[in-house]
Each structure stands twice: as structure tokens, then as C-alpha cells.
UniProtKB/TrEMBL annotation:
Residues 691-894 form the DNA-directed DNA polymerase family A palm domain. It catalyses: DNA(n) + a 2'-deoxyribonucleoside 5'-triphosphate = DNA(n+1) + diphosphate. This is DNA polymerase I. Coiled coil: none annotated. In addition to polymerase activity, this DNA polymerase exhibits 3'-5' and 5'-3' exonuclease activity.
Length: 934
DNA sequence: TTGTTCACG
DNA sequence: GACGTACGTGAACAAA
């Protein structure tokens, strides 16, 4: 406490600056600047400093402060969340380039020599309220520099507000203008009207106007609620009676707390002049050239040099020290780890990577954790390295000089879960799941793989080694140098620690550098929204789905496998008999020789290898006359079902959970679709009756049901919207059979009583259009002459000319920009579009298809991201995604509620970003297993 | 490791 | 006039 400062009292004037509001305004008002030397995002800091500088150089007239402070929100969770858990729950996640700037704005405030205040568990508004009350009580006055309406309840009796944008003073009259009541009744009005921004519920259907009128009439909120039955309007009366409790909760939410515990006095906030050295030092460190010069001039000090450096997105930033794997630190004791944690808090971000005993996140153990806070500063914390693989039983004695895993995790947990510290990773879903199994749920996240995907989909893949080489000009240590390959491969736990340190720490540093490299490119390439709304938020959602897994009945699979084995043996005998010799039915080469050389059937060779094609297409033609081909087709189907599904799936059942846990790759497909691996649960059979039965093995836990919801015709609906095809849009609005409508338009036949063959042809054309149709492709698909197929297509384009226009425009755009975009802004690069020759056709079709397939992928991503909050109140979990289908597991009694909630989310998933001109329709089903639910 | 085949949307 | 052709995936197996 400062004992020498004069006592705060009459004649003293306190300025309370709403720091968080300053930051957000600065962030949104300025382009995303980055520090030249290393790419650190500093746009909000720059704006914040400019605003503070403007503030301190302002004369303030008669309002000049004797005391001042900048007040910040400490973290997202406050005591209000205990009153109402959904308070501020609908706030969009912070842009990731803003979060690391928070600590810098605190530094900036101190550099300006202004008191910097934040208190855990309290909002800035409560601290401001407390200070304003204390100033008033002490006989002084206060001005709150903010335009936040929530602070207006404090106005009056020596307290006023200053709107820093409009430079307008807000007194009791202005508050009355805004709320229709005086400052002392503002909370009553807010409690009734609610606030959608902060998610304060209020009374449904009552806005500020009505609320003010009611409060004016009845005096205050409690009187109003007590006398609610006197209200004349029946609906309004009922609303107040029904929601009385909710309104009281709302009042507690909006009522600011004037009793925030403070560990400082008003006196300590006395205005001080900035110290030139500290302020200029900070500004120069941030590399704010103009502001540094301006401040230096005003303060009569010499401006420190602001280092000039080339922009950070040049490949292999030459101003940075090279990546030096030899210089990394091995962390072996708590003191060293604590020092790193301090450095992380200081930086506001950390790049993290975990090394594990295996690649299956559901089973792998942690071997070590690497961290990096800036280029040149990275470490590796080994925790699970074991002595060499010398003895036969795989000695598992831990190597000396490692911290215990639980101590390391306990120390890191507060940092990894701190909402003010950004966790940066490459494919963070992996590390997220590993840490989640140890009770740590990392947030917030930045993922360099996803940044690259948003920027570079279609151009190259997004693995770290490739990104490091392309964008940092750095070749990473290959993992093979540590663990070997093939039969002699060892686990990471067996790698010597002194070899693991450079490898692991390098991964963290490379990730950090990639983040710095990509961060400014997202806004420059206009993919920030894609990254922020479709990529980054999906990580924890998918991680939870994958950890949930789906129950698979191993016994059922085993029975099926046995039945399939029998059938295969039987078919094999038949095939050998028909061929007149024994051969490997699974060998296309041997089969081709039997069919085309020995039996002399008609059939061609394929290009590269010169081998005969024996694909289903070819065999189906032969099967008309030759039983051998028909039997081989049967054998292949059974063999596929057995080897890929009934056999393989049994091996994927996790012994701990009894469930199958797939892994989704977010950045695998070019179009924005997910891909499922280990095992692939997006291609479980459904089209054939035998195959479909495999879905009976995917079951709900006892007491639960599986629920499947899928979008009906989503790609055609998107086509109708983006290509703006009136006939198609109207058909979707009317809810009529789209393929029958197409057939009717093309062939002039009525929808009623239509020949199923005609409808089937129209359906094939509708799909073909999405894929970039050709006469050849359609003729093969429908098994009709090519001329006939071409005639269909011509008719189709005549009836729906907008489709050709759309295709031409899409291809032209791809040639112009080297990329196409979905409705939601996802960019898919089309590097091959200007090729000539046979490849050109493929690139053209891919460019036509990508915006449609991609938009559908965007829509279901949006639904998935919103889903956890939308079903949080139900005993249900989202388990699987199959491109246009979501599968849930839900308690028996809640099936209908789940379907209603999930359908609502899915059907509205495009909004508000895109207002589709066709409805999205979702079909739903439920059952004890996936076959029943689908 | 590469190519073929086939499961899905 | 010829060239090749539906779009997007992953896994298993044979063959090199």
C-alpha cells in the first residue's frame, strides 16, 4: 500500500477505463498486423496503445483525472456462471490471434504507467462498479470510459460515463433515453428484457420498451412481480407469472457487484506520468514505428531503434536464427519445468507436442512432452523412456533422470486449460485425446495442420515434415532415424533420451514457427472465417466422438466371419471346377489368364501393367453367359465383407472400452469432407443385403438406442441453390420427388405412375451433374449406348440451362483464381486446372464438384460444432459422421427429444452465414443397432 | 511400395 | 478428330 499518497476524497476524480472494450474495438478496427521480426500478432495491441496514447495526451478539460486505472476481465468464468451456467455461453470463441495479445495489453498498460487491474472470478464491470462506489463514498467523483450499457446502472451521484468513440458524456438523462428509466432502475429493465449478447434470458417476448413501461407503472421489479396478476394483457401477465424465477435470476446476472474484494486502495491509482524509457522500450519491442516516434517526440526522449526486418511469410525467414536441434533443453527437474511454465505464461501461448508409445490415442502412453514458446526456445520433458530392448521380456525399467508423469501433468494442467493461453499444435486432436485420457482438456487451440488446410487444400498435404520443408525451408529429423523401420522398429519409449530431445523439441519449435508463418496469411488469403468456424472448433468435437467410440458386438462378427468362410470355400470349389484347375481366386492376374487366355473370352488389357482387367464392370458383362464370372463376383463380395469388415473390425474393438474408436482426419480430403481411418467407419456396407447385416453388429449400450439422422439430397439441394435453378428449387420447396421431377421435365411424362426405369435414368443424370457429367460416363453407368446417354445430357442442359452456366462459370473462376470456393468460403485450390491433355478433363470435373461436395461438408461440420451444446441437456452422445449422416447413442427414453434437437441443428446448420433458397431436410431413424437406425 | 479392386457418400 | 472420362475417400490383397 502506498502510504505517502494523499487520501482519495473530495476534489479527487477517478477515471475507470474498460480495458476489454478497448481491446475488442482495437482488434476489429485494425487489419491483422503482425510483428515484422517474428510474425507475432499485434494488431489489437497496436490499436490499444494508440487509444491509450490518445487518452493520456487528451486534456480532459474540467474532467481531468487525479486517479486512473485500466480494468480487464480476468477469464471467461466468473461467479455469474454459478448463478446461471449458460451466462455468456453463446459468445463465439475468441479469434486465436487475439488471445495471445491479452497479456501484451496488460504490459502496454503498465508501460503507460497506468494501474492495471484484473481479479479472478470477477468481471471488469464488477471491479469498475466497486471502484466507482468507493470513489463516490469517499466524496470524490468517477468517470467510466466505456459505452457498455451494462455499466449505465452506475451513473449518477458523482459517477458518469464517457463514450470514447462518440466522445459523448453519459449522464442520467442519456441513460433514461436509452432505457426509459433512471439509472437506479436500469437493472430492473435489463432483468425483464434480457440480453442476447450475454445470454441473459429475461422474460420472453419483453423488450426494453415494454420493460421500461412496466417498471414505470409499478415502480420496481419486485412490486411488478408481486402484482403481476393485475396486468391487463393476458399474454404479458402469464409470461411474468411463468418466468418470475428466470427474471429474478436475470436480475442477479445484470446487477453489478460493488463489493469486489480489492487488495489495493483508491490512493494507489493516482495518476503518474509515463516513464519514457519503459514506454518507449515496450513500443519499440512491439515494433510500432510510427507510435514510437510520436511518443518519443512528445516526451522529448530519443526514440529507440525499431529493427527493420523482412515480412515473416517469406519462405525460411532469414532474420530468424536457424533451427538448431543441438541447442534444445532437456527438462529433468521441477525447477526447470517451472521456469518453462513461467515463460509460457509470459508469452501467452505455447507450442506443444506429445511423444507416445504408439499411434492409437486410445491406448498409447505418454513418453515425453515438448514445448516451445518462441523460435530458438524449445525443450523436451521425458517421462516414460525405458531402458533398452536388451532382454527378451522387454525390460520396462524407467531410465534415470526423468520427472514423474503425474507431477509433470499436474504442473502443466493449469496452463493447458487456461483460457488465456493458446495451445499451438500440429494435428492437435491427437495430443488432445492423449491428454484428455489424463484428465486434461486443452483449450484454446491453434492447429497448424488446419491452418495449412484452410490455405492450401488441393495444393499439397499438410503433414508437419512437408510443411516445414515448404514454408520454413527446414528438413525435420526423420522419425526413422530414431525408431528404425520394418521389423526392427522400436517404440519411442525405447529411444535414448539424448536422441529424443532434439527430435521432439524440434517438432515443437517447427510447429511454433509454422503458426507464426500461417497466422497472418489466414486474413490475407481470406480464409480466417473458414479456419475459425469450420476447422478449429471441430477438434474437440471430433476428439470426444472418437473417444466415445461405438459398441460393436464381436460375437456377431465372429459368427458372420465363419459363415462367410464357409460360403467362400464352397464358391472356390465351384470356381475351380468351372475353370478346370485350381488357382488363387483372389489374384486378378491368375483370374485374367484363366478367363482371357485359357477360355479365350473377349476382354481387353489395361494401360500400365498390361494385365487384364477383371473389375466388377468386366465380370458383370461376362456373367451373362459364363457362370465362372458370376461365381467370382459372388466370391469377391463375400471375401470383401469378411476380410475388410467382419474379420478386421474384431481386431479394432478396444479391450478397455469394448468399443470401436475410429479416427477422423480433418485435413485429409481435398473438399472439406472428413475421412475415417483405423478403422474406416464411413464405408460400412449398406447397399447389398448381405453387407447391410454387418451393421447389425454396431449396437447401442444396454438401455440405449442408436439414432441416425441424415440429410436428404443435400448435394442436389446445394446445386439448386448455387446454380440458381428455379425448377429444381421449386421442386425442393414443394417437397416432391426430385428424380421423378427431373424425368418428367426431360421426357415430358407425368410424375404419377412413372416407369421406375425412367426415374432411375434421371437419378443417374442428377448425380452425374454433380460429378461433372460426360456422355461416356453416363453410358457406362446406365449401360446404354453412348449416343443415347449424350442425348439425355443434351436434353437435361436444355431443360436446366442454369447448370451449364454454373459449370462454365466455375471452371472459368478456377482458371482465373487457381481455386474454387464453397458457399461458406472454403477454398479448394485447383492447381491442375490449366493443364492440357487427358488430365485436364479430370481437373475440370473436380473443380465443378468441389464447391458442391465442399459446401455439403461445411454444412455438416457446422451442425457438428453446434451439436454438443444443443444436446447437452440430453443423455446422448454423438458417435459417428458419415458425410451426410450423424449417428448418436441415446438413452431409450430420450430418443424423440434427441431427434428433435439434432434435427433442428442440422436443418438450420447453414444459417446465419448462408440463407439457402431451398430447405434442408433431415430424415431420422432409431433402433437397437445401426441397421435398424439407418 | 504400387496397382487393383471394392466398400461408402 | 482423337483422347480419356463420372466426384470424394480407405483398406485389403497380390505382385513386384
Amino acid at each position: 500500500m502506498t502510504s505517502d499518497a494523499p487520501v482519495f476524497g473530495k476534489g479527487c476524480h477517478l477515471h475507470l477505463i474498460d480495458g476489454s472494450a478497448f481491446i475488442f474495438r482495437a482488434y476489429h478496427a485494425l487489419p491483422p498486423l503482425t510483428r515484422k521480426s517474428d510474425g507475432l500478432p499485434v494488431g489489437a495491441v497496436a490499436g490499444f496503445c494508440n487509444m491509450l496514447w490518445k487518452y493520456v495526451t487528451d486534456e480532459h478539460g474540467s474532467d481531468a483525472p487525479t486517479h486512473a486505472a485500466v480494468i480487464f476481465d480476468h477469464s471467461a468464468k466468473t461467479f455469474r456462471n454459478e448463478i446461471y451456467d449458460l451466462y455468456k455461453a453463446n459468445r463465439p470463441e475468441l479469434p486465436e490471434d487475439l488471445r495471445p495479445q491479452f497479456p501484451l495489453t496488460r504490459h502496454a498498460t503498465r508501460a503507460f504507467n497506468i494501474a492495471c487491474i484484473e481479479i479472478e472470478g470477477y468481471e471488469a464491470d464488477d471491479i469498475i462498479a466497486t471502484l466507482a462506489c468507493q470513489a463516490r463514498k469517499a466524496g470524490g467523483s468517477a468517470t467510466i470510459i466505456s459505452s457498455d450499457k451494462d455499466l449505465m446502472q452506475l451513473v449518477g451521484d458523482g459517477v458518469d460515463m464517457l463514450d470514447p468513440i462518440k466522445a459523448r458524456l453519459i449522464g442520467p438523462d442519456e441513460v433514461r433515453e436509452k432505457f426509459g428509466v433512471g439509472p437506479d432502475r436500469v437493472v430492473d429493465v435489463q432483468a425483464l428484457a434480457g440480453d442476447s449478447v450475454d445470454n441473459v434470458p429475461g422474460a420472453p417476448g419483453i423488450g426494453i420498451k415494454t420493460a421500461a413501461q412496466l417498471i414505470e407503472e409499478y415502480g420496481d421489479l419486485e412490486t411488478l412481480l408481486a402484482r403481476a396478476d393485475e396486468i391487463k394483457q393476458p399474454k404479458r401477465r402469464q409470461t411474468l407469472i411463468d418466468h418470475a424465477e428466470q427474471i429474478r435470476v436475470s436480475k442477479r446476472l445484470v446487477q453489478l457487484d460493488c463489493d469486489t474484494p480489492l487488495d489495493f486502495t483508491l490512493e494507489s491509482l493516482e495518476v503518474r506520468d509515463p516513464e519514457p524509457e519503459a514506454l518507449l522500450g515496450f513500443l519499440a519491442e512491439m515494433e510500432f514505428r510510427t507510435l514510437t516516434a510520436r511518443v518519443a517526440e512528445r516526451l522529448g526522449a530519443e526514440a529507440p531503434a525499431v529493427e527493420a526486418a523482412p515480412p515473416s511469410h517469406a519462405p525460411a525467414a532469414p532474420d530468424l536464427p536457424g533451427i538448431d536441434a543441438a541447442g534444445y533443453e532437456r527438462v529433468s527437474d521441477m525447477a526447470a519445468l517451472t521456469a518453462w511454465i513461467t515463460a509460457i505464461r509470459e508469452a501467452g501461448h505455447v507450442a506443444i507436442d506429445t511423444e507416445t508409445t504408439g499411434l492409437d490415442e486410445m491406448q498409447a502412453g505418454i513418453v515425453g512432452i515438448s514445448l516451445s514458446v518462441r523460435p530458438g526456445a524449445a525443450c523436451y520433458v521425458p517421462v516414460g523412456h525405458v531402458a533398452g530392448s536388451g532382454d527378451l521380456f522387454g525390460s520396462s525399467a524407467l531410465v534415470e533422470g526423468q520427472l514423474p508423469l503425474d507431477e509433470v501433468l499436474a504442473a502443466l494442467k493449469p496452463v493447458l486449460e487456461d483460457p488465456a493461453i493458446l495451445k499451438i499444435g500440429q494435428n492437435l486432436k491427437y495430443d488432445w485425446k492423449i491428454l484428455a485420457r489424463h484428465g486434461i482438456r486443452m483449450a484454446p487451440l491453434a492447429d497448424t495442420m488446419l491452418m495449412s488446410y484452410a490455405l492450401n487444400a488441393g495444393t499439397h498435404n499438410h503433414g508437419m515434415d512437408e510443411l516445414a520443408e515448404r514454408y520454413l525451408g527446414h528438413k525435420c529429423i526423420p522419425i526413422k532415424e530414431l525408431i528404425g523401420s520394418g521389423k526392427a522398429q522400436i517404440g519411442f519409449a525405447q529411444v535414448a533420451i539424448d536422441k529424443a530431445v532434439p527430435y521432439a523439441a524440434e517438432d515443437a519449435e517447427v510447429t511454433l514457427r509454422l503458426w507464426q508463418h500461417f497466422a497472418p496469411m489466414l486474413p490475407a488469403e481470406k480464409v480466417t472465417t473458414v479456419y475459425e468456424t469450420l476447422e478449429r472448433p471441430l477438434v474437440p468435437v471430433l476428439a470426444e466422438m472418437e473417444m466415445a467410440g461405438i459398441r460393436v458386438d464381436g460375437d456377431t462378427l465372429k459368427r458372420m466371419s465363419n459363415a462367410f468362410a464357409q460360403k467362400m470355400a464352397q464358391l472356390e470349389d465351384e470356381i475351380h471346377g468351372l475353370a478346370g484347375e485350381k488357382f488363387n481366386v483372389g489374384s486378378p492376374k491368375q483370374l485374367g489368364e484363366i478367363l482371357f487366355d485359357k477360355m479365350g473370352l473377349a476382354g481387353g488389357k489395361t494401360g500400365k501393367t498390361g494385365a487384364y482387367s477383371t473389375s466388377a464392370d468386366v465380370l458383370e458383362d461376362l456373367a451373362v453367359e459364363h457362370d465362372l464370372a458370376a461365381r467370382v463376383l459372388d466370391w469377391r463380395q463375400v471375401s470383401k465383407l469378411k476380410s475388410t469388415y467382419t474379420d478386421a473390425l474384431q481386431g479394432h474393438v478396444n479391450p478397455d472400452t469394448g468399443r470401436v474408436h475410429t479416427s477422423y482426419s480433418i485435413a485429409g480430403a481435398q473438399t472439406g469432407r472428413l475421412a475415417s481411418t483405423d478403422p474406416n467407419l464411413q464405408n460400412i456396407p449398406v447397399r447389398s443385403e448381405d453387407g447391410r447385416r454387418i451393421r447389425e453388429a454396431f449396437v447401442a449400450a444396454p438401455g440405449y438406442r442408436l439414432v441416425s439422422l441424415d440429410y436428404s439430397q443435400i448435394e442436389l439441394r446445394i446445386l439448386a441453390h448455387v446454380a440458381d435453378i428455379p425448377a429444381l428449387k421449386q421442386a425442393f420447396r414443394d417437397g416432391i420427388d426430385i428424380h421423378a421431377m427431373t424425368a418428367s421435365q426431360m421426357f415430358g411424362v407425368p410424375v404419377e405412375g412413372m416407369d421406375p426405369m425412367i426415374r432411375r435414368q434421371a437419378k443417374a443424370i442428377n448425380f452425374g451433374v454433380i460429378y461433372g457429367i460426360s456422355g461416356f460416363g453416363l453410358s457406362r453407368n446406365l449401360r446404354i449406348p453412348r449416343a443415347e446417354a449424350q442425348a439425355f445430357i443434351d436434353t437435361y442442359f436444355e431443360r436446366f440451362p442454369e447448370i451449364r452456366a454454373y459449370m462454365d462459370a466455375t471452371v472459368a473462376g478456377a482458371k482465373e483464381d487457381g481455386a474454387v470456393r464453397t458457399l461458406f468460403g472454403r477454398r479448394i485450390n485447383t492447381p491442375g486446372i490449366n493443364q492440357s491433355g487427358p488430365a485436364a478433363g479430370g481437373a475440370r470435373r473436380a473443380a465443378i464438384n468441389a464447391p458442391i461436395q465442399g459446401a455439403a461438408a461445411d454444412i455438416i461440420r457446422r451442425a457438428m460444432i453446434r451439436m454438443p451444446a444443443a444436446i447437452a441437456h440430453l443423455p446422448a452422445r454423438m458417435l459417428l459422421q458419415v458425410h451426410d449422416e450423424l449417428v448418436f447413442e441415446v438413452e431409450e427414453g430420450a430418443v424423440e427429444d434427441l431427434i428433435a434437437a439434432a434435427r433442428r441443428v442440422m436443418e438450420a446448420a447453414a444459417e446465419p452465414a448462408v440463407r439457402l433458397s431451398v430447405p434442408l431436410v433431415v430424415d431420422a431413424g432409431s433402433g437397437a443397432n445401426w441397421a435398424e437406425a439407418h
